[in-house]
Design goal:
- This protein is α+β, with helices and mostly antiparallel strands and 174 residues long.
- The protein has a domain of 101 residues: Rieske [2Fe-2S] iron-sulphur domain (Rieske Iron-sulfur Protein, 3-layer Sandwich), CATH 2.102.10.10.
- A six-stranded antiparallel β-sheet has the order 1-10-9-4-3-2, with no helix packed on it. A four-stranded antiparallel β-sheet has the order 5-6-7-8, with no helix packed on it.
- Strand 7 and strand 8 form a beta hairpin.
- The protein is elongated.
- Bound molecules: FE2/S2 (inorganic) cluster (FES).
- This is Rieske (2Fe-2S) protein.
């Protein structure tokens, strides 16, 4: 008959093992705290410029800059004509009008009343929203008739090497 041995073998070894383990844990905790403090410091420093930028953004003081995007080549738009495009996102519909040989204006064309698309009305020389007969000044984007009270957001354009590019969106005070 075999006798059951319930004794823990190598008790000392077991004891030592526990000490090591708890020390390891302590070291781990300390190491973790150090890492945490370090990470918090890095975050605080690295977030400073972002915080300033976010504040500027929230207060509407900054102009929105985006990677420039080609709207059209110069020879594809006659004076007095308009082109529709999207900027800055693919769902942000916009319109550019060529007012003269060298003058281009562009706006996001969701009406500032209830977001119907605004069209270039060449005959009347203004931007027209057909939903409630809203009108906007083509030179400035300011509302001139109907329910809209806010201007159309202007898109900055730049002519470069035979093409017109969108470069940013003008911010308006709320
Ligand atoms: S949505 Fe443009 S005038 Fe109402």
């Amino acid at each position: 008959m075999t006798e059951k041995n319930n004794k823990i073998p190598f008790e000392e070894d077991n004891y030592t093992h526990n000490i090591n383990r708890s020390n390891e844990r302590k070291l781990d905790r300390r190491g973790f705290m150090k890492t945490l403090v370090g990470a918090a410091g890095v975050f605080a420093v690295s977030s400073l410029p972002w915080g300033a930028m976010a504040a500027k953004e929230l207060m509407g003081l900054g102009e929105k800059e985006y990677p420039r995007k080609k709207i059209a080549s110069l020879d594809s738009v006659a004076v007095g004509d308009a082109v529709e495009f999207a900027f800055p996102g693919e769902h942000d519909s916009a319109i550019m009008i060529r007012l003269s040989e060298k003058k281009f204006v562009a706006y996001q064309n969701a009406c500032t009343h209830l977001r119907c698309p605004v069209f270039w009305n060449k005959e009347e020389n203004d931007l027209l929203c057909p939903c409630h007969h809203g009108k906007f000044d083509v030179e400035t984007g300011a509302p001139t008739a109907g329910p809209p009270r806010r201007p159309l957001p202007e898109i900055f354009v730049k002519v470069d090497k035979g093409a017109v590019y969108a470069t940013g969106v003008k911010r308006y005070e709320a």
